[in-house]
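Deliverable D4.2, example record:
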Amino acid sequence: MKALNPILLSGREVLPLVEGGKGIAVSNGESSGAWAAAGGVGTFSGVNADIRDADGALVPVVYHGRTRRERHDELIAYAIRGGISQARIAHETAGGDGRIHMNVLWEMAAAVPILNAVLEGAKGLIHGVTCGAGMPYKIAEIAARYGVFYYPIVSSTRAFRALWKRAYFKFAELLGGVVYEDPWLAGGHNGITNNEDPLKPEDPYPRVTELRRFMNEMGLRTTPIFMAGGVWYLRDWERWIDNPEVGPVAFQFGTRPLLTQESPISTEWKQRLLALKAGDVHLNRFSPTGFWSSAVHNAYIQDLVERSERQVAYTNEPVGQHGTAFPVGARRRTVFLTPEDAGRAQGWVDQGFTEALKTPDSTVVFVTPAMRDEIRRDQIECMGCLSACNFSNWAANEKGTTGRKTDPRSYCIQKTLQEIAHGGDVDTQLMFAGHGAYQFATDPFYRNGFIPNVRQLINRLLTGD
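Output generated by the structure prediction step:
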């Protein structure tokens, strides 16, 4: 294994080992501060981060607003307080070592005002901002306003080229690095485009070297690339180290830091990670963001799979083969199905899936009355956590809506991620993870259920294992 030498990141020489910024409350001040204290780059999540009081106690998040807009405003206020709170914890935990970054999602609600307010309220505590889940053109301008470095997360040269030519070239001196996130292997939301096959992963090396060639052409020869997604053993990436085709490189770990003593996830979640097998993490497209995402295939995901399988196309009037009348909903309104689909639908009704919910795609899905009630309750209680939500049809615009029907095939992402982050059942909530998470069970480092602290993990990584 080649020596992994320090590189310049966010104004300081540090180990090129970066903690990936997992969403809601999963990468926090304690975990990111510990990562920085060990000489790397710690990244706390600025997506609805937990608020801690002066004694370190968790401040409950309670929404009082009667409308989505009112709850949306409350969510923004909570997010700002949480981001500042976690930045302070990370700074204190790091003790001045390493670097602290904040991760935000461009498609989260009010990304711009939240980021501005956190950077203002935590001046000097945050050294860099990573941002993905969309095309964050404005991130460079915002970072420059506060003198911090910015790190866009992309999955292709095409995406970075667009960002560079539209906005980033104006703020080149603060472009701290470019995070290449493998769209087939990374956990959470993935950047697979319509031009790519989700079932056919591509080798990251040619994709990253293409990115490097473009960066070199733009005068960014010394700007590091972070390889994110699918990184487990650094010995598997030895070819990338000190390789002029790749250039300065750092390695970002999202999944492995979940299983550390400083990681805030529950003991149940950690034990579940230790038991995963190859193939337990799947790509799916149920997220209300519309993005592909990678999650553990548990009962929560299986319910979404089966829900979509109980789905048929309908028309409001007899059209072609759609000539069989079928009553749906509480008012027993008639839709028209094909004879074959009418038979399938009747079978689902006979099994107890008596409620038919319409989707934006002129289909109906069949669910139980309890499922229907939960879906509708979650849609009604929406607090506007995304810039646009397929599930609830919320949008952060003047009208507060996408203008489309709500989509019962999706879910309230804020609800389930808050639940699992704060001790909820890991089988009945959304559990994001990278596709290499099964290696917890096969890596000898974790033998007999061993859970390292962050410093022990980083020391292990430096050996190549």
